[in-house]
Amino acid sequence: MNFETILHKIDENINLDFGTIFSRSFDLFKLVWVQGFVTLLLTIVCMLPFYLAMYAPMIAMGISDPEALESGALPPVLMLVMFVVMPIFMVVFMMIGLSLNAAFLRICKHKDLNEMAKDDYFYFLKGKNLGKLFMLSLLVFGLSLLGMIACGVGLVYMMVPISLVPAFMAFNEELTPMEMIKASFKLGNKNWIVIFGLIFVMGFIAQLGMFLCFIGVLFTAMLSKIPVYFMYKDGVGFPIEE
């Protein structure tokens, strides 16, 4: 679907329903919990080297000069390096998170609609998608910064459209990064309260896995991502449903 068609379908479709998305998310979770677990593990594995690289200068300084680290007085050069490097790594983290979440949503669609397709977790980390993924990550990072600048209130507002970005990336590869952002805001603004409620409630439920010796959260965490699939399915729809 092109951008104008998507906007038209968002306007045309009825508002999202909290109850139906909530219940269907649990039903779909039964089919994709293994894929969700794999997605979370891949996210951790992919991000870990970058976290280590990001904090490597501080670790090295702590080994060579523990007193300086304990005093909290970081050398100006190290502070400058951290100031420059930190945003770069944050964009990389955005790229990893967006790509794996979008791939997970594609898997959700395959399972929900009984489509025969392999579970390609790195679908959006391949050559043809990297440029678009990079630009989209920059936009999401910028929006997150704007939200934080607005005393945190803006971040609460931004979390709704930002949560929808992986869905538009997963199911509308023909859109530009800016069009994905605009479509996310369009759907998010129309159903802000319902989407926020689902994010909050499902996020809380997903964290209950911590009570299973903490490791249980690895299996339940991705439950919080499944409602986004149904938000897109009900709010926009797929071409085969036309």
Question: What would you say this structure looks like, in words?
Answer:
The structure is a single chain. Helix 2 packs antiparallel against helix 4, helix 4 (76-112) crosses helix 6 and helix 6 crosses helix 10. The protein has one domain. The relative contact order is 0.16. Helices cover 76% and strands 0% of the residues. The protein has 10 helices and no strands. The radius of gyration is 20 Å and the shape is globular. The longest helix is centred in the first third of the chain and has 47 residues, at 18-64.
List the helices and strands and how they pair.
Elements lengths: L2 H10 L5 H47 L1 H6 L4 H37 L14 H23 L3 H19 L5 H14 L1 H15 L10 H4 L5 H10 L7
Tag the structure with descriptive keywords.
mainly alpha, globular, 242 residues
Can you summarize this structure?
This protein is mainly α and 242 residues long. The protein contains ten helices and no strands.
User: In whole angstroms, how far apart are the ends?
Assistant: 11 Å
Per DSSP E runs of 2 or more residues, the count of β-strands stands at 0
User: Rounded to an integer, what's the Rg over CA atoms?
Assistant: 20 Å
The main β sheet shows up as:
none
The domain tally reads: 1
Helix content: over 70%
Relative strand content: under 5%
Global structural class: mainly alpha
In round numbers, the mean pLDDT is: 88
Low-confidence stretches: none
SSE string: HHHHHHHHHH
Query: What is the general shape?
Result: globular
